Amino acid sequence: MAEIRVLTPMPWLVESAWPGEEQVTVEYAEVERMHELIEGCDVLWTQFFTSQMAERATSLELIQSTGAGIELIDLDAVPPGCEVAIVHEHERAIAEWVLMSMIALNRDAFRVDATFRTGSWEMSYFNAPTAVELTEQTLGIIGFGHIGQQCALLASALGMRVVAATRSPDKVVDPSQFGVSQVVGLGDMAEVLAQSDFVLLATALSAETENLIGAGELAAMKSGGSLINVSRARVVDEDALFGALSDGRIKGAALDVWWGEPLAPEETHAPSRHPFGELDNVFMSPHVSAMTQQMLQRRVRSATANIDRCARGEPIQNVVYRG
After folding, report:
1. What average pLDDT does range 150-169 have in this prediction?
2. Which domains does the chain have, with CATH numbers?
3. Burial class (CB in 10 A: 0-12, 13-18, 19+), 279
């Protein structure tokens, strides 16, 4: 087994107890110095890679992403022979957040809380509108990978009917094992939108899925339906969504991903060009749906196992690109 040097910009990874081989050395580098210190590095454990970094990445064998997204990795700059691998392990955490969002949107929990805090009883049992229990509702999932499947399992366990649309419906073997009654292709997505009380976006961002949900798709949603997005903001047309929420064309939304997300902790950006925060039918969170202790532990185990494979010359798992 060869000795390998791992470089990462994330201190919590370095601080984690290394469960792998002794021949693996993990070093931390601040983001702005990554391109300086990458020379001689065998593995880059990060979620971004630039052409500037590639200039000195002469020894790089593996770019191990800290997550499932690779949009910040410049694939054109990946050196020949270097592999790019991802980790999942976030589906359970995100599914819990989705479940929380559906229940809260269904019971108008945020407006009830905000109203009652003012001392008003206007939404009390005397005159509050009665909610339809989730067992009588349908969840439509757009994208049926790890996240979509886990969300389907939890929703169906509550008694919800679950349908899905995905890029490759023919690859979904026995959707009933996830509690799903119907799976169609993205070309037939309107069928899912029309019958779903909640539409969950769990598809990867690509040229095919950017602005997948626009004004037409929002208009095609079931009357009283709500949108939940845990994929990437650019899957949805920003202007169309704000308009649909503002004028009540859709009931509400739970948004964990944003068009103006910062790329580093020290950056601050408005989440959108529109004031979503002024709307009382939107639940907003800053890309935290996956953040649980158990998810981080699982990801570290998955990534370090891959780094050990690299050191032993064994095949890397979850490879999504080869330079």
Report:
1. 97
2. 4-89+293-322 (3.40.50.720), 91-284 (3.40.50.720)
3. middle
Q: What pLDDT score does 129 carry?
A: 74
Q: How far apart are CA 224 and CA 92, in angstroms?
A: 27
Between CA 71 and CA 257 the distance in angstroms is 14
- Cα separations (Å) of 269 from 31, 75, 221, 264, 306? 18, 26, 30, 11, 34
CB atoms near residue 301 (< 10 Å)? 15
DSSP string, 221-287: SPTT-EEEE-S-GGGB-HHHHHHHHHTTSSSEEEE---TT--SSTT----S-SS-GGG-TTEEE-SS
Q: Is the dihedral of CA 273, 279, 281, 282 positive or negative?
A: positive
The per-residue pLDDT for range 252-300, each reduced to its tens digit, is: 999 999 999 887 667 788 999 999 999 999 999 999 999 999 999 999 9
Whether pTM > 0.70 for this model: the answer is yes
